[in-house]
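Researcher: Quick one. two chains, 667 residues in total.
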Amino acid sequence: MPLLEVEDLRTYFKTREGEVHAVDGVSFEVEEGSVLGIVGESGCGKSVTSLSIMGLVQSPGRVVSGSIRFEGRELTTMSDKALEDVRGMQISMIFQDPMTSLNPTLTIGTQITETIRRHLGLSKAEADKRAIQLLEEVHIPDAARRMRDYPHRFSGGMRQRVMIAMALSCNPKLLIADEPTTALDVTVQAGVLETLDELRRDHGMTMIIISHNMGVIAETAEQVLVMYAGQIVEQASVIDLFDRPEHPYTEALLGSLPHIDDHDPRNDRLATIPGRPPDLLVPPEACRFAPRCKYAGIDDCSKVQPELREIRTGHWVRSRHPASERSAEPVGAR
Amino acid sequence: MSEPEIATTETAPRQSPRGLDRPFMQRRAEFEEALARNASARGAEAGASLPRASLWSDAFHRFMKNRASVVAAVAFLLLLAFVIFVPWLSNEDPYAIDFSQAYQSPSWSHPFGTDGFGRDLFIRTALGGRVSFAIGFAATFAIMVVGIVYGATAGFLGGHVDNALMRFLDALYGLPYLPFAIMTLAVFGTVNFWTMVVALTIASWFTTARVMRGQIITLKQNDYVRAAYAVGAKGPRVLYRHLLMNTLGVIIVFVFLELPGVILGEAFLSFLGLGINPPKASWGTLAQDGYTAYATHPYIIVIPSICIAWLILSAFFIADGLRDALDPRTKEA
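Model:
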């Protein structure tokens, strides 16, 4: 049995103009011990998916339908009280901006031990010991002394490490990292990712890593979901996805990464994807990527939504024109 | 370190200063090692050299830098000391009536003069201050409790509860302050310390509730609140630890903004004759006593008025300094 099964998840946000379909029929599974990457541009529903799993979608948003099963237990219908015990103990999450994720008026020691004491029922001294050990695990130098410091005395990378320590304090089975390195310097990013990976191995943890950065996904994930406009458009193992991307969107995403190997990026403009994602207030009946897709138009791309289909073992794609089925050059060539 | 050697002859083995001849992996390992050494050295240094500072000591330092506020704090404490210690140390009887001593102007034996009954105004001003301060502190405390509970409930629960609570508050806001307090006193029928506190509280807790609600709603949006939920914190815990504790600064500032308002309200009601019953006195009733003789003996009304103004001004300047000191955004210390 997979650790986490998400089936046909739909999370909508009520607005004055109508309901925004932020997550619109997302299904996936995460096997125990694996690392799932979710990638996509801003507003594609990555974060809302993870918040839905945590049961932290805030009004005016709500999970409209679908099921989320963790170790076979349904989370969507669970009482708030039971959910509180799942959060932290079973599933934990770290957020994008470490600068604002810590309470500025409490020492980091207090913030870590509080979680530990509440969930594991340890004494103050035991909790302190565990917190110091956690801080050492995330490579915070001089951990015992830093316990008494307030968050403003930590740098961004350090704070993210503290957040990781906090998230790991009760040995959760699943860690969701929502853009864990986006707010950090590139040099710090690598360190934080490395620590995450190390901890995952040590604790045998399952991880979902969400990013808009293909590089981060390539480095960390085993399975990858590509999301676009609230839907999964491609799903494959990381190697297959990067070697043989099928969906035109994935191709375009990879194509828009800067390369330094074959030519001088300063002389070239970066490739971009023209157009904008569709309005999720009234999601089109058609393929959601059709207006931006250079292969669309030869058949009913603009009329019927393509289904997610398995194009080869373990590689799923939602497109009528996946790379391996194309014979000719794009019709409406740019 | 020696000068970098530049290969001059073709026959000598090329020795570039950056050691580009060594294999890549070896250089990388060396570099990483150096980096790690550097980092740990820096870490130890940083930990040792920076002074440890807590929120409160930081705030204290910032407050001490604001000269107006420090002066105000000293003035406030002086007034408080006057009110507390003078009745203790003086052996003057504040209630002894002696018409031969009536309407004495300020002198060495009676620094603030005497009133129409020949009572010493120095000690009566101090005693009246006790009453004013006591009512002020008690009512401010009650206002804070009521306002915080009401506002935090509305802000934390949100939705329909918030809406209902706030509309009720809006309706109360429509009522004018003084008639509201007078009405409350009329309902009680008597005026004493406690009815006065209740009347003032009922008439002036609205703003505190509103501000608290706004604070809680703002704080609720913070990432660390979401992060706390994500690691499994429970609602009441989040409300207390992450929301209420973070409004502490605002609450402290508000105490010093509310206190003068309440004391002024008490003085006002007393001046209108709705105050503490004689022969006891507050600054308001003392001023009212002076009102009847202000043309001939102005000091009787001027002295309690100065006390009230002194208190209000110093409290406002303290509040101002505290607001700057407790705002974590004013970081430079």
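Chain A has two domains: 4-228, 258-325.
Researcher: Thanks, that's what I needed.
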